């Protein structure tokens, strides 16, 4: 659609757009807010470069999308528990968010969206890949659509596909971890095909790190189908790529995307502020 108060330019073939002509540090008008929301629903991922925001301004903008919620596995900033720092130092090797996933899909009501605000970026690399889960559904054959439509996935906070689970990930970073011992209890069942509550479109709700089995299936059936669905949902044709420089802000819709942080900047520092936007529906 045409926008009057913002400039919206696609960054990928099927999802993602850069939004220009707006300073998020200034008060936003109702029409700007409505157009940003419309662009968010149409593009699934919005990127705003060159923003200069305090933490309060960052939170105020994030709240336009919904209430902020803490992330369970990392302690937030002292005065801003809803904000946590994703920091990778030059001598660290493992990165956070380095496998495909959609945020907190192990919750009964997963978050609407996630916002990252780049504070310090490497000289090159450190991009985020984001995959379009509408396309992942739409490109299945009709027989496979009929198979997955009736299925329920089981999503865990414990990263069961990773050796050592959640604990190994948190131990490999310098984050102030929280609730790691409870990761195995954080589990939810959701339909594998969910309908977006605002667009009405169907998405294949695959969260690479969290989806670990399909309810009611044998282990062999489940492993084969989960393996296929994870490969399919990570097809490069469904992705866009967000590149950061200091002051880049990105917000994505967790109800119809999954993402992966690239770890291709050895020897350099990357610091992002992450805000999680709650108020999501129970997937249906
Ligand atoms: Fe994530």
UniProtKB/TrEMBL annotation:
One of its GO terms (biological process) is sulfur compound metabolic process. Residues 7-276 form the TauD/TfdA-like domain. It comes from the Bacteria. One of its GO terms (molecular function) is metal ion binding. Signal peptide: none annotated. Pfam families: TauD. Gene3D superfamilies: Clavaminate synthase-like. GO terms for cellular component: cytoplasm. The keyword Kinase does not apply. Keywords: Dioxygenase, Iron, Metal-binding, Oxidoreductase. SUPFAM superfamilies: Clavaminate synthase-like (SSF51197). Belongs to the TfdA dioxygenase family. This is Alpha-ketoglutarate-dependent taurine dioxygenase. It comes from Thalassobaculum fulvum. The lineage of its organism: Bacteria, Pseudomonadati, Pseudomonadota, Alphaproteobacteria, Rhodospirillales.
């Amino acid at each position: 659609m045409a926008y009057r108060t913002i400039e919206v330019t696609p960054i990928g073939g099927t999802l993602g757009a850069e939004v220009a002509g707006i300073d998020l540090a200034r008060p936003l008008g109702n029409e700007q807010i409505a157009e940003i929301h419309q662009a968010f629903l149409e593009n699934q991922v919005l990127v705003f470069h060159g923003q200069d925001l305090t933490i309060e301004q960052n939170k105020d903008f994030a709240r336009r999308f919904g209430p902020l919620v803490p992330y369970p596995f990392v302690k937030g900033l002292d005065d801003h528990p809803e904000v946590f720092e994703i920091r990778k130092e030059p001598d660290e090797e493992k990165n956070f968010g380095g496998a495909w996933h959609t945020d907190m899909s192990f919750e009964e009501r997963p978050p609407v969206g996630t916002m990252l605000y780049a504070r310090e970026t490497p000289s090159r690399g450190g991009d985020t890949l984001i995959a379009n889960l509408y396309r992942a559904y739409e490109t299945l054959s009709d027989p496979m659509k009929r198979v997955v439509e009736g299925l329920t996935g089981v999503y865990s906070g414990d990263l069961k596909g990773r050796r050592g689970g959640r604990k190994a990930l948190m131990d490999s970073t310098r984050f102030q971890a929280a609730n790691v011992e409870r990761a195995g209890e954080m589990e939810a069942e959701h339909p594998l095909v969910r309908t977006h509550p605002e667009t009405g479109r169907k998405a294949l709700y695959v969260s690479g790190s969290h989806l670990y089995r399909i309810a009611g299936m044998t282990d062999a059936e489940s492993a084969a189908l989960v393996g296929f669905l994870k490969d399919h949902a990570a097809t490069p044709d469904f992705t866009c790529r967000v590149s950061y420089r200091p002051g880049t802000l990105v917000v994505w819709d967790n109800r119809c995307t999954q993402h992966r942080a690239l770890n291709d900047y050895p020897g350099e520092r990357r610091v992002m502020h992450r805000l999680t936007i709650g108020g999501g529906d129970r997937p249906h």
